[in-house]
Amino acid sequence: MKIQPAKSIRGEIKVPPDKSITHRMIFFAAMAKDRCEIENPLMADDTLRTLDLVKNVGSDVEYNKGKLSIRMEKISEPISPIFCGNSGTTARLGLGFLSRLPLFSVIYGDESLSSRPMDRVVEPLSLLGSIFDGRNEASNLPISVRGGIVKHANYRSKVASAQVKSAFIIAATAGDGVSTYTEPITSRDHTERFLNAFGITIKKGNLIEIKPSIIPSFKSRVVGDFSSAAFFVTLGVCHRNAILDIKDVGLNETRTGFLNVLKRMGAKIEIRNVKNDFEPYGDLHVESSNLEGTEVLDEEIPSVIDEIPLIALLGVFAKGRTVVRGASELRKKESDRIKAIVSVLSKMGVHIEEFEDGFEVEGSKLEGAKIDPYGDHRIAMMAAIAGLCGNGVELTDPKVVSISYPSFFEDLEKVER
Ligand code: S3P
User: Which of 54, 166, 170, 171 could hold 191 in an S-S bridge, CB 3.0 to 4.6 Å?
Assistant: First the structure.
């Protein structure tokens, strides 16, 4: 796919529903007492894998007019291994979900997912009683679960990972007593936020208490995905002739560290019409901006984790240097994202230095280039934005965007003038 530089960017865009929240609502609905309704779910490759997982163990799933209706009919043992595709959230939260059920199951993934660490969830989930086996001593998929033997435990995690935290919480709600989970730095809190509303979890700083409980039947609406909106925010800020409004964007503060980074860099961005419905959401207004370099360090990383490729791109358009450190987790995403960011931007003529835990990028001009996105949706979308704001780009594998944002290229066309 060839992307030409855009002359100007104008208009209004509504980004797709939040991926993290959709995964969670599907799992919660399959755990709930009765049928649940999820309005505006994300129907993309990753979340379809989660739907498939819950169907495989007996959930009835209906999708009609933008609404999902889910009910666990009769728990049944899957006769085949369950495919999680490219989706880390399906695999990790799925291991927590399968731990609750009195059955034997096996999950597996594509090549990228099969190389990502699973011991980080297997270790805490084993404390809750289920038995796991798998490749590399259950560190990698395929992994088998013999579930349903749930105890309670107090677990202190070394990684700030919402996937690990959520897997543990999901399993611990079926425990035989109160469990606790402590994380080193607060990661996205969609799981606790939702369960708090039913008194199932209690948050005490970085410690979460989880009471064994059954989730009541619920109806919820999924807000727009901040991480998908971030591509359009970057387009609006970096393009030299842009005014853009992005509607119905999730604004949970454990996700929006990117807004703080943008403000420090001098971006023209306004948050408008903030409302709340389990999760805060609102509209974003962005305009072409003169940016300054900044530093993003350890404490801030979990709240910007999926936006780091875009911080690198902002750094290219900023005066001076932009530094990201303490982000070694990025090497364990859908691709080794530090390597991918450095190689993609280097190909576009940018001066960027790679560190084990981040990078340092200097403000520079972008050249056109042919880019392989490493099978990573966020790298493909970052490269497309770079092409629109710089000197064009040729993407070798544009369809990877369907992991989280199937209509990405159509949405881009809507705002190009
Ligand atoms: C996610 C958590 C993050 C994020 C991923 C989605 C989630 O991963 O990178 O895209 O839905 O919980 P970690 O918390 O494991 O870093």
Answer: 166
Closest approach atom of ligand 1 to CA 187: 14
Domain of 241, in residue numbers: 2-16+224-415
Axis crossing angle, helix 377-389 with helix 408-415, rounded to the nearest 10 = 20
pTM of the model: 0.98
Report CA torsion sign: 151, 153, 158, 164: positive
Q: What is the CA radius of gyration of the chain?
A: 21
Specify which residues 360 forms β-bridges with: 323, 353
* Counted domains in the chain: 2
Residue 302 Cα: closest atom of ligand 1: 16
* Active site (annotated) includes residue 60: no
Q: Looking at residue 292, which CATH number applies to its domain?
A: 3.65.10.10
403: DSSP letter: G
Q: Give me the catalytic one of 306, 336, 372, 376.
A: 306
Pocket of ligand 1, beta carbon within 6 A? 20, 23, 89, 161-163, 166, 187-188, 305-306, 329
Question: Mutual orientation of helices 226-238 and 408-415 as an angle, nearest 10°?
Answer: 30
CA of 104 to the centre of ligand 1 (A): 26
Q: And the tokens for 325?
A: 């450190």
Please check whether residues 167 and 262 belong to one and the same domain.
no
Task: Yes or no: say if 171 and 148 are a contact pair by the CB < 8 Å rule.
Answer: no
Instruction: Note the pLDDT tens digit of each residue in 362-373.
Output: 999 999 999 999
27 and 11 belong to one structural domain = no
Distance CA 417, CA 8 (A): 5
413 C-alpha vs ligand 1 centroid, how far in Å?
28
Q: Which pLDDT band, with edges at 50, 70 and 90, does 208 fall under?
A: very high
In the block, tokens 């290229």 appear at: 409
